Amino acid sequence: MLSGTSLLSGGTAGSPFQGPGLRARVAPFAIVAVLAEASLALPSGHESGGAALASVLLLLAAAAGFLLPWSRLPHWMQVLVPLTYTGSVLALDLAAGSTSGVGIVILIPLVWTALFHRRWESVCVVAAIVAVEIISLTPVAAPDAVIARRAVFWASLGTLISVAAHGLRERIRRSQQRSEQLQSRLRELTVLADRDRIAAELRDNVVQRIFTAGLRLQSAASQTPRGDVRGKIEASVDELDQTVRMLRDAIFGLEQRPTERGLRQAITDVCAQLSPAPEISFSGPVDALGADTRAQLVDMLTEALGPVRTNAMAARIDIAAEGESCRAVIEAGPGAAPGAAGTEATEALRGEDFGRVRDRGAAAGIRVDVEAIPDGLRVAWRIPRGSPVAAPRS
User: Fold this and answer.
1) What is the side-by-side order of every strand in the sheet holding 325-333?
2) Side-chain half-sphere exposure of 212, counting CA atoms within 13 A
3) pTM
């Protein structure tokens, strides 16, 4: 369903005979149409009961068009409603006489179609109006010049009204689109401002407080004899360091523009295919890496995770950015699998040669290290600055 605003602005979906605001749209046209029919009760000296009855029946038929299930009917049928009322006006004009002046209500279907229908429908209605004006002169045997003038006048007037109305609707539609674009841009700028503010508060306040607390704990640890207490303090310091790194990564993510597809999102999409879901950690400005480095990393990571996915292993993935280089480490193991099944899965994983990722790395001059670790396997490589991107294997 379209609202009156969207219909007026040139929308073609839906139906002009349904939707919110329908009564407000129809009321002015309906009042004029009913008054025109009521004017037949006035004495005019012209009697044509058959034409009057036809006018009323056609008006009721046009009104019934508003009750049809337009969502299930072809769109072209919508033009039949104003055309039906145009026929009603012809019968009304014949009933009241060409000199009664009531024929001016022929503007109702013209204005309605110009406001709420498509251009080709306005063309049909203008043609019907010209035909009505010519036929309405038939009973009085008007000269050919009068008929020609009336046809030219109504064709010109109908065209003028239709072109002006459709042009206005098009301008309104463009204005609405521009307004929506500006509102969308304003919302985006508001979100970006909030992200920048949050990032600044985290960087200037939260990170500094945690870093200061870590320094105090380090100082306290250096003054504490070796033992359980000192070990707990040092473990807490390590946790705070890890928290600071995570916060810095989060701050960098907040400063990343939403329209930019970063490396984090690309790696998350690759890992979404794994079950169980891997644990992923990032350190450093990974989203600031060059496009070639990002592409090479994603391609190699996809190949390296193939055996992990095949053997349904739990995995931990560490991605570290250091300047223009990037280091990737995958540690895979049985995870929560039961003893015998976990051991079997681990052996199966160790039996993989990771040939595809090795070949892709070799093509780019990158060494891939595969080594066994307790209860699993580690695959690691470093992509140096300016590393060429290997062509995908078929």
Assistant:
1) 279-283, 314-322, 325-333, 376-383, 368-373
2) 7
3) 0.52
Could you give the angle at the alpha carbon of 385 between the alpha carbons of 380 and 390, nearest 5°? Answer: 70
Please tell me the distance from the alpha carbon of residue 239 to that of residue 21, in angstroms, as a whole number: 61
Beta bridge partners of 316: 279, 331
**82 cis-preceded (ω within 30 degrees of 0):** no
> Which single residue is written with the structure tokens 């009917």?
73
How many whole angstroms separate alpha carbon 327 and alpha carbon 281? 12
Torsion of CA 273, 277, 278, 284, to 10 degrees: 80
Per-residue pLDDT of 296-346, as tens digits, reads 888 898 888 888 887 777 888 998 887 778 889 988 877 544 444 456 656
pLDDT tier at 234, thresholds 50, 70, 90 = confident
Query: Using one digit for the tens of pLDDT, what is the confidence trace for 153-202?
Result: 999 999 999 999 999 999 999 999 999 888 888 887 887 788 778 877 87
Q: Cα(387)–Cα(394) distance, rounded to whole angstroms?
A: 21
Written as six digits, the tokens of 84 are 């039906």
